[in-house]
Design brief:
Mean pLDDT: 88
CATH topology: Rossmann fold
Number of strands: 8
Helix content: 40-55%
CATH architecture: 3-Layer(aba) Sandwich
Number of helices: 17
Largest sheet: 4 strands, parallel
Radius of gyration: 21 Å
Bound molecules: iron/sulfur cluster
Number of domains: 1
Shape: globular
Structural class: alpha/beta
Length: about 400
């Protein structure tokens, strides 16, 4: 029997990971997610705080060491994204077949005239359309900064001069943010703090493997997304993770005997929260996520170099969940590792419609996993927070049924 998100009994809600009324940790997590709003950050900026659009998850310690709040770029399509996208098409003449992400970014930035967050930080190793749209963003009066592209596809390519170059780019970003070089002791401290958060996130994911239904896919995604920006409040995020760990330890004391289909989700959150709920309700569980890095930074080297090593290693492991670049190219190897470690029976490869990189990655993964005998489904979506189409729902359900 399929459960729905509107099921009313606590047992039913537990079955789909919707236990809002019984979990202090879930309530605290939801409050944290809601509190990380543009309005709040705008207020903080009006009171003198520094904030920047973007950041790339792996550079969070640097941003916090520069007393700067990272504002997740997904905040640009949280509200009325269709209007922003059509502005991107009609006013900025971005062809309709381009991905919804780039069109919405420029449309929203144009509409956000009153916003006091006027700076954008991005990494040159992301896709070409982003680099192009940043030129339009600049023409709209924003101050943009590009951390120049560095890529190391193999361990041999991670040469000392590559690491030094990336470290110097990070220093340049710090000077752009604050006017002076980063305080290295402070950066060391932020690296330690991010490592502590990553350890807790890993613990949550590990405990969840004992019974994925005690924490549904949507709150799990919120936990993972928090590793990018720490919800602007690292101390509170750490406290919420502690609460979650305590509750999960209790709830998973006896591993579930329920049978379900374990899956790996690669690349983004598969569209809207509703798509994730459809997966949960189809008696499947996402046991592996390729969305954000949860490995640890080295604490035994100069801190700027530690951040540089971190991103190069994470890219080569294919674990950052990025749409383009090394991380996307190598994603299949990371997915395969997770499948082997968790016993996942299938893979959902998610990409944004119109993303040229996403379609190449999906095709490569289809061929690769076919060779391994691991079933895979490609799911395309836009950045708009809309209900999945009937066709998408049907495809997910059919895929899960096929694996049952
Ligand atoms: S969806 Fe693809 S093309 Fe669009 S911004 Fe992301 S990586 Fe670039």
């Amino acid at each position: 029997m399929l459960m729905t998100a509107n099921s009313s009994s606590p047992a039913d809600r537990r079955a789909v990971g919707e236990q809002r009324d019984v979990s202090e940790a879930r309530v605290a997590l939801e409050a944290l997610v809601v509190s990380y709003s543009l309005e709040r950050i705008e207020r903080q900026v009006a009171e003198g705080a520094s904030a920047v659009w973007g950041g790339n998850s792996w550079d969070t310690p640097l941003l916090y060491a520069c007393d700067t709040i990272p504002v997740g770029i997904e905040g640009l399509w949280r509200e009325d994204s269709r209007t922003a996208e059509s502005l991107g098409e009609n006013m900025f003449q971005i062809p309709p077949e381009y991905c919804s992400m780039v069109k919405t970014i420029i449309g929203r930035m144009h509409l956000n005239k009153e916003s006091q967050i006027r700076r954008v930080l991005y990494f040159g190793a992301t896709c070409e359309p982003i680099n192009n749209v940043m030129e339009l963003v600049k023409m709209e009066g924003y101050d943009t900064f590009c951390i120049e592209n560095v890529t190391a596809f193999t361990a041999e390519e991670k040469r000392p001069e590559v690491v030094r170059f990336l470290a110097s780019e990070l220093q340049r970003a710090a000077i752009w943010l604050t006017g002076s070089p980063v305080d290295e002791d402070r950066l060391r401290e932020e690296i330690r703090r991010k490592n502590e958060i990553s350890r807790k996130v890993r613990q949550v994911l590990d405990l969840r493997l004992r019974d994925p239904f005690v924490l549904g896919s949507v709150p799990t995604l919120h936990v993972l997304l928090g590793t990018s920006h720490l919800y602007g409040d690292p101390a509170e995020f750490g406290r919420v993770l502690d609460l979650l760990i305590a509750e999960l330890e209790e709830a998973t004391r006896v591993p579930t005997t329920r049978t379900y289909i374990p899956l790996v989700l690669a690349g983004g959150g598969a569209g809207s929260a509703d798509t994730l709920r459809v997966i949960d309700e189809s008696n499947a569980a996402i046991v592996g996520w390729v969305i954000a890095g949860t490995e640890l930074y080295s604490e035994d080297m100069p801190p700027l170099e530690a951040v540089a090593h971190y991103v190069l290693d994470a890219q080569a492991r294919g674990e950052l969940g990025e749409g383009a670049g090394t991380s996307a190219t190598y994603r299949r190897f990371h997915v395969e590792r997770i499948c082997r470690a968790t016993g996942a029976k299938g893979v959902i490869a998610s990409a944004i419609t119109g993303c040229p990189y996403g379609s190449v990655v999906q095709q490569t993964e289809r061929d690769y996993f076919k060779g391994l005998g691991i079933p895979i489904i490609s799911l395309e979506n836009t950045i708009h927070k809309e209900r999945p189409t009937e066709e998408q729902i049907m495809r997910v359900r059919t895929f899960v049924e096929m694996l049952s």
